[in-house]
């Protein structure tokens, strides 16, 4: 396997770049030097890294929606409509572009133009190309990030970074395992080394681009240690390629103490692993994603889920919260619904931001538990990779050591089965082949047994199914009827 966690040299990168920019007609418009000049021309108020740094200094939690539509003018109108209600802007990329099906994206643009409304589920940035993407950036006053789900995001990165987007979400694991079925992990990891090296080249020219691995993964009952392991690995891979501004993320699970423990442990563990790997001059921030699972159709109840996530994000001290909308149960939200999600989040953030969630033995126990679990799994990843975390990742996923619950990728073992305990914290029902110490497994087993006793039923996969639907049915824990 030629994959190595080593910084790509210029020759390797440039020879690959020829193929990347030729992979769709709009690639020919990208000129790296011109992109560097344009990035330097942006005011600090439009640079993700500056806004994130200020928020961390001030202890503020920033608001960011997801948003993306097919046509440029509509996308600009959408983001202009949202920008007064948030701190950071997205451009959510459509599903065809995520699969590099640019010809289908082109058809979608044509059909959307004919229909006078967006018929794509996101913004097809590659098809629109550099100038049109730059027109988006020019039309806004806030920093813009590319949010997508692309295993091969090389051309998308070339175009959007040269166009002035100042943050890029994703990674070789987090945009493969939860998003793709049959993309070999080595391939997506290698493609993302290219993306990270490109960010590293911008960094070497004084342009700081924020990199945000996709935290929530399958977004379905993912235990904190699982998403933390992936986030930390992708942070290490990005740092190796010269990225300096890393935001690590986590998806709300629903038990407040566990969610706060997750964000606080994530920051501490990232610093522990980044510094152990010899990196010191990086900028670290965290992002909390409001509930990523099934939502209630009832919009008032959806707002309640949104606000519970906003409260957790602020109490956890997350640098950023990714905001959901009351249309989550139905699909791509209207701009009005998107803005309402932001406004509800703002109200809760404003009411919570001056409050301190006290340390407690329970919170401390959750933080320590997550740290132990992450350290166990990552030790195995490094061992399997004989010190190389990229190789170790591929082998760990193949061995079921890294295992993302409810993920579609065939390379993912899918043996780890989570379930909520009697207070709604996500625990391990079946560890599969994840190497956790016996006392940790006993802790999880005892917590699950408490619930089984309370519900007068055996712990079972039925409990797991009940939990998956619970929040959309206005519960946290999937209790038997
Ligand atoms: C991992 C991201 C999944 C979530 O990302 C949101 N999402 C996806 N596409 C759009 C879009 N075009 N506009 C606004 N939100 C969008 C939905 O919440 C979805 O559950």
Automatic annotation (TrEMBL):
Cofactor dependency: adenosylcob(III)alamin
Residues that, per the record, bind L-glutamate: 66, 98, 147-148, 169, 175, 179
Gene3D superfamilies: 3.90.970.10, Methylmalonyl-CoA mutase
EC numbers on record: 5.4.99.1
CDD domains on file: Glm_e
Catalytic class of the enzyme: isomerase
Binding site for adenosylcob(III)alamin: 68, 121, 178, 295, 324, 328
GO molecular function, one term: methylaspartate mutase activity
InterPro entries: Cbl-dep_enz_cat, Glu_mut_E, Glu_mut_E_C_dom_sf
Keywords: Cobalamin, Cobalt, Isomerase
Catalytic activity line of the entry: (2S,3S)-3-methyl-L-aspartate = L-glutamate
One family name in Pfam for this protein: Met_asp_mut_E
Pathway(s) where this gene product acts: Amino-acid degradation; L-glutamate degradation via mesaconate pathway; acetate and pyruvate from L-glutamate: step 1/4
Subunit-level organization: Heterotetramer composed of 2 epsilon subunits (GlmE) and 2 sigma subunits (GlmS). GlmE exists as a homodimer and GlmS as a monomer.
Job description of the protein: Catalyzes the carbon skeleton rearrangement of L-glutamate to L-threo-3-methylaspartate ((2S,3S)-3-methylaspartate).
Sequence similarity: Belongs to the methylaspartate mutase GlmE subunit family.
Designated name of the protein: Glutamate mutase epsilon subunit
Natural source organism: Aromatoleum evansii (Azoarcus evansii)
Gene designation: glmE
């Amino acid at each position: 396997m030629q994959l190595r966690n080593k910084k790509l040299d210029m020759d390797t990168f440039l020879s690959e770049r020829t193929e990347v920019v030729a992979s769709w007609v709009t690639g020919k418009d990208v000129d790296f030097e011109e992109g560097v000049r344009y990035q330097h021309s942006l005011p600090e108020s439009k640079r993700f890294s500056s806004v994130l740094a200020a928020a961390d200094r001030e202890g503020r939690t920033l608001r960011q929606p997801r948003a993306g539509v097919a046509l440029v003018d509509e996308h600009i109108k959408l983001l202009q409509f949202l920008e007064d209600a948030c701190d950071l802007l997205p451009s959510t990329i459509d599903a065809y572009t995520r699969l590099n099906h640019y010809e289908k994206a082109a058809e979608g643009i044509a059909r959307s133009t004919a229909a006078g409304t967006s018929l794509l589920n996101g913004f097809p940035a590659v098809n629109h190309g550099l100038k049109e993407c730059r027109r988006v950036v020019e039309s806004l006053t806030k920093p813009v990030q590319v949010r997508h789900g692309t295993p091969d995001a090389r051309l998308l990165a070339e175009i959007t970074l040269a166009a002035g987007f100042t943050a890029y979400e994703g990674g070789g694991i987090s945009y493969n395992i939860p998003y793709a079925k049959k993309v070999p992990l080595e391939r997506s990891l290698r493609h993302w080394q290219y993306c990270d090296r490109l960010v590293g080249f911008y960094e070497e020219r004084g342009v700081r681009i924020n990199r945000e691995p996709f935290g929530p993964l399958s977004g379905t009952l993912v235990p904190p240690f699982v998403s933390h392991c992936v986030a930390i690995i992708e942070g290490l891979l990005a740092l190796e390629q010269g990225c300096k501004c890393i935001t690590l993320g986590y998806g709300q699970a629903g038990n407040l103490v566990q969610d706060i423990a997750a964000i606080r442990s994530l920051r501490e563990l990232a610093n522990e692993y980044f510094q152990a790997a010899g990196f010191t001059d990086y900028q670290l921030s965290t992002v909390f994603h409001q509930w990523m699972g099934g939502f209630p159709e009832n919009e008032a109840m959806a707002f309640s889920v949104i606000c519970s996530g906003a409260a957790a994000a602020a109490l956890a001290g997350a640098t950023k919260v990714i905001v959901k909308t009351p249309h989550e149960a139905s699909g791509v939200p209207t701009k009005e619904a998107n803005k309402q999600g932001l406004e509800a989040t703002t109200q809760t953030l404003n009411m919570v931001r001056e409050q301190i969630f006290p340390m407690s033995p329970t919170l401390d126990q959750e933080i320590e538990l997550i740290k132990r679990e992450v350290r166990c799994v990552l030790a195995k990843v490094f061992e399997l990779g004989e010190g190389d975390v990229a190789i170790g990742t591929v082998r760990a996923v193949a061995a079921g050591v890294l295992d993302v619950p409810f993920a579609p990728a065939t390379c993912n073992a899918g043996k780890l089965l989570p379930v909520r305990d009697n207070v709604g914290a996500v625990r391990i029902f079946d560890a599969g082949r994840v190497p956790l110490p016996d006392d940790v497994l006993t802790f999880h087993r005892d917590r699950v047994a408490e619930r089984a006793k309370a519900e007068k039923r055996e712990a079972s996969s039925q409990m797991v199914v009940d939990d998956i639907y619970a929040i959309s049915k206005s519960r946290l824990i999937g209790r038997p009827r």
